[in-house]
Amino acid sequence: MEEKLETLWNEVRELSRGNSGRLDRLDFPPTPLQFLRDFVSQNKPRVISNATSHWPALTRWTRDSYLTDALSSAHVSLHLTPHGRADALVPSSTSSSLCFASAHC
């Protein structure tokens, strides 16, 4: 049974990434049409570099006061967890299994 699962896994991996086992890289984000046509429809994963370099947050958030100014009249909800992982699977402190960490209210 394990051998059949391994064969199936190898076939799925070959279909999605080809025989090389490596991921292609793009140095810039594709257009939405290119992304759909060349990657999504072909079920081919890619690593896309510089995909966020045009985001305004990269320049606006360098000022300490930007978020204070932008959110000064907004109600902000803060989720506290011991390790900053709200709504995530984390190792249990009492066993070797994972547990769901919810935010402290």
Automatic annotation (TrEMBL):
Domain of life, per lineage: Eukaryota
Annotated Cupin-like domain residues: 32-89
UniProt cross-references to Pfam families, sorted A to Z: Cupin_8
SUPFAM superfamilies documented for this protein: Clavaminate synthase-like (SSF51197)
Protein family: Belongs to the JARID1 histone demethylase family.
Name the record gives this protein: Cupin-like domain-containing protein
Native species: Rubus argutus (Southern blackberry)
